[in-house]
Design goal:
Blueprint lengths: L3 E18 L5 E20 L4 E5 L13 H12 L6 E6 L10 H16 L7 H10 L3 H6 L3 E5 L3 E2 L8 E7 L6 H7 L25 H9 L6 H7 L2 H10 L6 E4 L6 E5 L2 H14 L4 E7 L1
Parallel strand pairs: 3-4
Antiparallel strand pairs: 1-2, 2-4, 2-5, 5-6, 7-9, 7-10, 8-9
Helix pairs in contact: 1-2, 1-3, 2-3
The structure holds 4-diphosphocytidyl-2-C-methyl-D-erythritol 2-phosphate and adenosine-5'-diphosphate.
The site of adenosine-5'-diphosphate has 19 residues, from α1 and α2.
Length: about 290
Amino acid sequence: MLPLTTRAPAKVNLTLRVLGRRADGYHELDSLVAFAGVGDELSLTPGEPAGVQVSGPFAAGLSSGDDNLVLKAERVLREEIAGLRSGRFHLVKRLPVASGIGGGSADAAAALRLLARLNDLPPSHPALLAAAGRIGADVPVCLEARARIMRGIGERLGPPLRLPRLFALLVNPGMAVETAPVFRTLGLQAGQEYAGGVAAFDADGSSPATPASLIVALAASGNDLQAPARAGAPVIGEVLSALSATPGCRLARMSGSGATCFALFDDCRASAEAGKLLAKQQPGWWVKPTVLR
Ligand SMILES: C[C@@](CO)(OP(=O)(O)O)[C@H](O)COP(=O)(O)OP(=O)(O)OC[C@H]1O[C@@H](n2ccc(N)nc2=O)[C@H](O)[C@@H]1O
Ligand SMILES: Nc1ncnc2c1ncn2[C@@H]1O[C@H](COP(=O)(O)OP(=O)(O)O)[C@@H](O)[C@H]1O
């Protein structure tokens, strides 16, 4: 049987506000999430022996064992849907691992979408969202991979937003950053509220209509995890400085818990030129011009 395929686009937290810490230790967030043109690719060949094979530029160092989030997604969905049909996955890993752009979450969400197709489950089947929430905090927003406000620990999703296209440059300095220690560095006790900065804009209202007005709204907000991540990985400060210094950069910020940062530009020529410049200055960094939407 022919493989089923899907893309697993990178998630970018355009803003990320921490509102407090829950009794279970997880943090309440308010984050405007968008998705990039760059991503992993996942395919599923029905009927073949179970497992995942990994290839691509970031395959090294990523396990193809049970801890791969693709296989975790399959396991969790199997617990929700008795008699689930599956097969062998092939993951082309193009996104840096543990990098704040949710590559693993995107892969898990992609696996859920492929399994839904194979088992004739509609995309709105409640088991898919239930499974997504059990796999990881970022997986629900990656299921549909459309821009929206994400709240709670990631399970409360606003309606899809029609954001103007943003011309962006994504840069990762090649340092994996674990998420949990970054949250811990905020130093919040269970039940404590956090007076972070302002949210980007009201999730239920309309978003700014032009890229320029959206960038102005974004600039008034921020990422509350940026300072704690920088404290543990000072190279993030170097990435932000390098991005801010590129001609035409309107905003430079970290995504998620880092270390990937993004810069926003007025057009695709400016983002491409900035990409060429940075790739020359820092040949060891992952540098990707892309469109966020
Ligand atoms: C920070 C964010 C922002 O989108 O992105 P990344 O940096 O991972 O891309 C996410 O909230 C990450 O989501 P995800 O990576 O799925 O997190 P999980 O695997 O569920 O949790 C990893 C660890 O992060 C902490 N965690 C995660 C989410 C959250 N809202 N509060 C937390 O305190 C917990 O310590 C948890 O044990
Ligand atoms: N398919 C996968 N892709 C990326 N990371 C994975 C995958 N499966 C398991 N992981 C593990 O999940 C953790 C988070 O990875 P990732 O989603 O890339 O991070 P982030 O959300 O910070 O971008 C990493 O420690 C990685 O080893």
